[in-house]
């Protein structure tokens, strides 16, 4: 679960979170660490060498949801990703898609953290921004009953 559990999708809030993250300090070195929500301890962000990963939205758990209802939940989540990507396209130009590779392939950070957090959805990537940063969005689900999670990745290194 994330710090966004139970919140409805809010496009202006998601845009603001990405824009704020683009100007946030990124660790130059050190270990990768998770930050939890103060009240609940739920995942609020992960910082690592040159990157920040954060949840922007989390769907309801899909336990016992099948067929048409599951398809509708997936479509809603995809619509949220598409709406946010369209906004970032208008601001930063068209994104490119970076396909996440299978788990067995060795990758540098931040890809190791994406895999460790079950953020295996393909990345929609923009960058570099005027500040020299790259931004990426992905829609993820760790298993069939788990919530869908829309995440943002901000890095000071090219994503390829």
Rg result: 15 Å
Percent helix: 25-40%
Domain module tally: 1
Helix vs. strand class: alpha+beta
Q: What average pLDDT do the residues reach?
A: 93
Structure description:
- The protein has one domain.
- The protein starts with 10 loop residues before the first helix and ends in a 5-residue tail after the last strand.
- With 160 residues, the chain is an alpha+beta fold.
- Strand 5 (123-126) and strand 6 form a beta hairpin.
- The relative contact order is 0.22.
- Strands 1-2-3-7-6-5-4 form a seven-stranded antiparallel β-sheet, with helices on one face.
- Helices cover 28% and strands 24% of the residues.
- It has three helices and seven strands; from the N terminus they run αβββαβαβββ.
Tell me the layout of helices and strands:
Elements: H1 11-22, E1 33-36, E2 43-48, E3 51-58, H2 67-92, E4 96-98, H3 111-116, E5 123-126, E6 134-140, E7 149-155
Antiparallel strand pairs: 1-2, 2-3, 3-7, 4-5, 5-6, 6-7
List keywords for this structure.
160 residues, alpha+beta, 28% helix, seven-stranded antiparallel beta sheet, globular
Summarize the entry for a quick read.
This protein is an alpha+beta fold and 160 residues long. Helices cover 28% and strands 24% of the residues. It has one domain (11-26, 33-155).
């Amino acid at each position: 679960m994330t710090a966004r559990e139970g919140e409805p999708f809010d496009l202006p809030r998601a845009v603001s979170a990405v824009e704020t993250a683009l100007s946030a300090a990124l660790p130059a070195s050190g270990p990768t660490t998770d930050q939890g929500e103060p009240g609940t301890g739920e995942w609020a962000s992960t910082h690592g060498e040159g990157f920040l990963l954060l949840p922007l939205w989390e769907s309801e758990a899909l336990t016992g949801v099948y067929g048409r209802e599951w398809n509708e939940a997936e479509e809603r989540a995809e619509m949220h990703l598409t709406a946010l990507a369209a906004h970032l396209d208008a601001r930063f130009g068209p994104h490119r898609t970076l396909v996440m590779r299978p788990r067995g392939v060795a990758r540098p950070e931040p890809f190791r953290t994406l895999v460790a957090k079950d953020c295996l959805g393909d990345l929609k990537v923009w960058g570099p921004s005027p500040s020299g940063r790259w931004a990426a969005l992905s829609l993820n689900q760790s298993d069939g009953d788990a919530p869908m999670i829309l995440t943002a990745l901000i890095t000071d290194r090219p994503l390829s």
